[in-house]
Design goal:
- With 203 residues, the chain is mostly helical.
- A hairpin with a 7-residue loop joins strand 1 and strand 2.
């Protein structure tokens, strides 16, 4: 329990807050579970601060999407999660999500393709731990597990994720960046050995 883990008051959260969260979930269990993971995010100022963010979000989004549209509210919450990531880290997260959705494969291949160290990869992914978890502690045997397919569906649908989408304008920019990088690598050396399957570098 979050309350016990953080030595919070027995009265936290209040019955009114719990009722509001259940109401906002409207039977969509993945929404409620994602909110709980967001509240206990270790990369935050603590559950009390996270809960305040959720409550502010709930009040704001209810006026926009109405009381009976949990799927639209779920998308809004995914947007909140992504928008709270610092821009530079968010771009890295988007690249990781794109390569994962396009080619799959183990995280160390994705990290190599993006020229990320194991630590950089872990830190970037930690920013979306509300929707994703690591399976294993050893980086070479690490697997990514998304709690629900709706998050990747959201990130690949420009109608839902808009400027956060990992396709469209973001993909154009990413591929332009990769072409520049490949040109520089190939012009500097001969017989280059890529640290992973070549198709990761050609996405």
């Amino acid at each position: 329990m979050i309350r016990e883990d953080h030595s919070l008051l027995v009265s936290w959260p209040s019955e009114e807050v719990l009722a509001l969260l259940v109401e906002r979930g409207a039977g969509l269990w993945i929404y409620v579970v994602t909110i709980v993971r967001f509240i206990k995010d270790e990369n935050s100022l603590g559950p009390e601060d996270q809960l305040s963010i959720v409550l502010e979000f709930a009040k704001d989004v209810s006026a926009k999407v109405g009381p009976d549209n949990p799927l639209a509210e779920m998308d809004s919450f995914y947007t909140l999660i992504m928008q709270r990531i610092p821009p530079k880290v968010r771009t890295t997260v988007q690249k990781i999500l794109f390569v994962y959705s396009a080619a799959g494969g183990p995280p160390h291949h994705i990290a190599n393709a993006l020229c990320l160290s194991a630590e950089q990869f872990r830190r970037a992914c930690a920013s979306i731990q509300s929707v994703m978890e690591f399976q294993s502690t050893e980086f070479k045997s690490l697997n990514l597990n998304f709690y629900h397919a709706s998050f990747l569906d959201f990130m690949t649908d420009p109608q839902r994720s808009r400027d956060l989408c990992i396709y469209g304008d973001f993909l154009i920019g990413y591929r332009r960046e990769r072409l520049v990088w490949l040109h520089e690598v190939c012009s500097r050396s001969t017989g280059t050995v890529f640290p992973g399957p070549i198709w990761y570098f050609m996405l």
